[in-house]
Every structure is written in structure tokens, then in C-alpha cells.
Amino acid sequence: MAEPFLIGDRMTGGYGGADILHGCTVAVEKGEIAVIVGPNGAGKSTAMKAVFGMLNIHAGAVRLNGEDITRLSPQARVAKGMAFVPQTHNIFTSMTVEENLEMGAFLRRDDISGTIDEVYRLFPILKEKRRQAAGELSGGQRQQVAVGRALMTRPSVLMLDEPTAGVSPIVMDELFDRIIEVARTGISILMVEQNARQALEIADKGYVLVQGSNAYTDTGRALLDDPEVRRTFLGG
Ligand SMILES: Nc1ncnc2c1ncn2[C@@H]1O[C@H](COP(=O)(O)OP(=O)(O)O)[C@@H](O)[C@H]1O
Ligand SMILES: [Mg+2]
């Protein structure tokens, strides 16, 4: 089988002390949605940072479209088409919504107005609030700003760390619908989710991480149907 579009392949590493990731693999195919779930402290955010180049791994590799990018800086990965929305501090709260989107396009030298329009089409509320400080928005709207900002580089891969953290179930469903829409445009989505059950419902592929290792890997559907996974990680 051909290699996935983006793969963090058997990654081992941590923050300088003991390793956090132990041969951990996560991957996503072109235009698909891959979801990483698992208990608190399992290393989900660490795996995302490793894939994005914010963490040195001393074994394993990261490859994008067949190219080894293991040694590239995060900035260089952005230039290669990767975008990352971290779990926290993912917007500039004192800047307006539109300024946040403009900041997202900092690497571009071409006309960004078309991309801003696309983001506003995806998230109409952001157009209404474009002149408001992003910090004044609701939690769900801020997450839209963060995702919209990430889309401004026109990435081929969008990485999201808990995009629905702290939002209501209705807002979560809405955000997941938008994420599906983004994937349908051909952008690969690699995301971490606390709302494991709902996220696996929309996942082409799911990864259950435990203590920095892969516990279960399968399609989202198969993981939801696996009695062991349900009992241990999905609350029955
Ligand atoms: N910046 C850091 N420096 C040192 N250890 C960290 C850092 N960030 C996370 N860790 C540790 O790495 C482990 C995995 O954390 P994390 O990847 O944030 O888990 P998750 O996202 O699955 O909740 C935890 O034991 C955590 O304490
Ligand atoms: Mg985390």
C-alpha cells in the first residue's frame, strides 16, 4: 500500500527528560480525517508537536508526501503546506478577527483577499464580527478564528489540537461539520479530540494512544464498534 500523505512514523522522543513518545505512529491520507484520542497525559499533544517539528524525536521520522521532513523547523513545514492549531493560545485576543486572519497569511506575498472570503464563507459569523477583538468572541467563535487563521496559508494538511475544547455539544457538531467541509476540499485533517466518540464518528482513521504508544489503530467506525475500545476509552 502507498504511504499516507502525512505520517509521523514510529516517533520516539520527549522534552529532554524521559521519553514521552515510544514508537508512536500517526498518519493521515489526502483529504481524509484522522483523529487521535486517549486519556489525559497520553502524549496526544506531544505527538502533534512532534509531527509539526516543535519537539525533537531521536527515533522515527516524519514524512509529508513522501518527503522526509523530520529535521525541518515548524516554519519550514508551514512553507511545505502544513498548518497547526495548538490546544491553547491559538489566537491573538487583542487583535480583530480580520487581523488574526491576516496574521495567518504572514508567509504569503500574493493577494490574500480570496482566501479571507473563503474563510468567511466557511464561518459566516466571523465576517459579521470581523472588526471585533477576537478576545470578545465566544469560545466556539474563537476556535473558528483559530481554524480560519490556520487556513490562511492554504495548507494541504490542517492539524488541530482539541478544536472543540470547552464548547457546547451544538457548537461542537457545527465545528465538526465545518471540519468535514474543509476535508472535502482535499485538505487532510489530523486532530486530537477529547470528545472521542463524536470525533471517531467523523474519522476515516482513528488512533488510540496510551502512555505514548499506539494502543488501537483502525477506521473510526471499527474503533467505535470494538467492545474493548468502547469499554476502556469510550465509557461503554
Ligand atoms: N512542555 C513540556 N515539558 C515537559 N513535559 C511535558 C510538556 N508538555 C507535556 N509534558 C508531559 O508529557 C506527557 C504527555 O502530555 P501531553 O502530550 O500534553 O498529553 P495529552 O495531550 O495526551 O493530554 C505528560 O506526562 C506531560 O506532563
Ligand atoms: Mg493535549
Any overview of this molecule?
By secondary structure, the chain is of the alpha/beta class. The protein has a domain at 1-81 and 158-163 and 188-236: Rossmann fold. It has 10 helices and 10 strands. The protein has helices at residues 44-52, 74-79, 97-104, 113-122, 124-128, 139-151, 169-184, 196-201, 220-225, 227-233, and strands spanning 6-14, 19-28, 33-37, 57-64, 67-68, 82-85, 157-161, 188-192, 205-210, 213-219. A 6-stranded mixed sheet has the order 6-7-8-3-9-10, with helices on both faces. Strands 2-1-4-5 form a 4-stranded antiparallel sheet, covered by helices on one side. The two termini are 34 Å apart. Adenosine-5'-diphosphate binds at residues 15, 20, 38, 40-46. Residues 44-45, 87, 192 line the site of magnesium ion.
Essential attributes:
236 residues, alpha/beta, binds adenosine-5'-diphosphate, binds magnesium ion, single chain, 10 strands, Rossmann fold, globular
Low-pLDDT regions: none
Could you tell me the strand content as a percent range?
A: 25-35%
CATH class of the domain at 1-81 and 158-163 and 188-236: Alpha Beta
Structural class: alpha/beta
* Shape verdict: globular
Individual helix count: 10
Average the pLDDT over all residues and give the rounded result. Answer: 96
Taking the sheet with the most strands, its summary is: 6 strands, mixed
Distance between the termini: 34 Å
Bound molecules: adenosine-5'-diphosphate, magnesium ion
Number of strands: 10
Helix percent band = 25-40%
Walk across the major sheet and give the strand order: 6-7-8-3-9-10
Quaternary state of the chains? single chain
User: What fold name goes in the CATH topology slot of the domain at 1-81 and 158-163 and 188-236?
Assistant: Rossmann fold
Question: Which value, in Å, is the CA radius of gyration?
Answer: 17 Å
